[in-house]
Design a protein that fits this description.
Blueprint (H helix, E strand, L loop, with lengths): L2 H15 L5 H31 L5 H28 L8 H7 L12 H29 L2 H25 L8
Helix pairs in contact: 2-3, 2-4, 2-5, 3-6, 5-6
Amino acid sequence: MSSKEKAGKNRRSRADMRGGFSEEATKEISASLRVLLADVFAVYMKTKNFHWHLSGPHFRDYHLMLDDHGDELFAMTDPIAERGRKLGGKALHSIGEIAKLQRIQDNDADYVDPQDMLAELREDNQQLCAEMREVHSLCDDHGDVATASLLENWIDEGEKRAWFLFEAGRTTPGSNY
């Protein structure tokens, strides 16, 4: 087989991977999934950071809650990456690529008060939900119901994490954010 024939075959294979979506749709959706994946890894890492560095009277409760949250976040990573690949796009290659793409800010402080940890993670999860809604909207624009369906479940999980973090961080009954 000539190199020209191989190149044509490869192009057809990539087109077949798009699942009937236009090249533009697959590029836009897969690119947005890569950025979302970087943010999920950023929130995951921050959640584990805070899980490992907690202290204080509510240590056990917060430690276990953040461990559960970390498990939920990590469970999202493979399906996000694989969905982008199914569409013919690329997944992340490295920690360096995550750092370039992430919109969620890291927290490298030596000490963070537990209440500040909860508040920061609540805000990060809310931001992640907003970003997932943007990707969902993009999927709606292109008729990608499979990706939209995955996002709906992850949005619900993210809202639950934000709610748990809000309730755990309350200092007085009935207080607002």
